[in-house]
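Hi, can you check this record?
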Amino acid sequence: MRVVVFFALLVVLATTMANALREPPKTLQIGVKKRIPEEECTKRSRDGDLLSMHYTGTLFDTGAKFDSSVDRNQPLEFTLGKGQVIKGWDQGLKNMCVGEKRRLVIPPEFGYGDRGAGSAIPGGATLVFEVELMDVTPGQRSYPIEGATTTAADKNFGLLDTIDFQSPIFLAGAAVILLLIGLIAKNLFGSKNSKVVTSEKLTEKKDEKEEVDGSKTKKQK
C-alpha cells in the first residue's frame, strides 16, 4: 500500500512540475545553449553593432514554427538596440560572442503584443527563438580605455538575466524533485523500518529478561 501511495504522489508531483514549466513566462527568458570560452570570444555584441543572426521562431503554446532564417539559409542582418527588431531581441541578444547560441522566450509585451503579426503569430502570443550569432560588425560607440578594468555587468549584463543549460542553475528543478522524493520515501518507509527495529529490540529485551529469571531460579534451587 505504501508503495502505491509513493508512486501516486510521484506522478502528481511530476505532473505539477510539467504544467508549471508550460506556463508562459511573464518576463524575458534568456538561455545560453552554446557558450563560447572567454579566450575564444574576440567580439561581443553591443548596442549599435550590426549583427548577422540565424534564428528559428516558434510559438510557445503550440510549438508551431512561424519563421526560420536557417530554412532560407540566409542570416538576418540588423543593428542592435535601434528598434529594428522586437524588444525581446534588442534586450536578449546583447553581449553575445560570435558562434554563441541562445534560446529566447519572449512574452507578448517584448514581442508583437496584442496585435500579433500576420496569420502566423496571433495576438498575445509568447514566442520562442533559437538564435545563433554568425558575425558582428562593430558600430560607432565608445570603447573602454586600454588597460581599464571590465566590470562584471559589462561582461554578462547581469548574471541573473542568463541561464546556462549545462549549469547547476538550470538543473535546480531536478534537484528539488529528488529532494521531495527523498522526503516522501523517508516518511513512507522510515516508520515501517523503525517498527521493525523496535520489534527486534523488544525481542532482545525479552530474551535478556528470560535469562535473568532463569539464573535467579537456579540460585534459589
